[in-house]
Specification:
alpha+beta; five-stranded mixed sheet; 2 helices
Length: 148
């Protein structure tokens, strides 16, 4: 009778230890997943800042008089192919149509000369789910007023 009791107590102790190990492994996997998701979101936010700066450079370098219109849409892809960014220039703030011949739908005549040259940008960054390194869909959107 004593030998059977010893085997039963050993089995119970093994079951308790194994359940504790399973719980620890589950928590550690959740922590790893959370860290990876936080990293990807942070990377998307940094890519968005880079997209804003590159959009300003693209607007500054665009010859409006030669093309007789203004830049309206810009598309960026990061170097690893993980994120795509879509930039829409919602509004150009110009003194008159001679400075920016953008058409009536996006010119906003202003009275204050300090606001001349501002642009209103809408940026959407989303993860490329066809990339094998991406396991979660991330979408960030931002509307910002910038001065090129």
């Amino acid at each position: 009778m004593k030998k059977a009791f010893g085997i039963m107590s050993a089995i119970i102790i093994l079951l308790l230890i194994s359940s504790l190990l399973v719980a620890v492994m589950k928590v550690s996997f959740m922590s790893i997943k959370h860290t990876a998701n936080s990293y990807m979101i942070q990377r998307a936010q940094l890519f968005m800042q880079s997209v804003i700066e590159n959009s300003i450079l693209a607007i500054e370098g665009y010859d409006r008089k030669k093309n007789s219109n203004c830049l309206k849409h810009i598309h960026f892809i990061d170097e690893d192919g993980i994120f795509n960014a879509y930039v829409d220039v919602l509004r150009y703030y110009c003194k008159d149509t001679t400075d920016c011949p953008c058409g009536s739908n996006i010119i906003s005549p202003i009275k204050d000369k300090d606001l001349h040259g501002y642009v209103l940008l809408k940026i959407k960054v989303e993860s490329n789910t066809s990339n094998p390194r991406v396991d979660k869909k991330i979408i960030l959107e931002k509307v910002t007023l910038q001065r090129p």
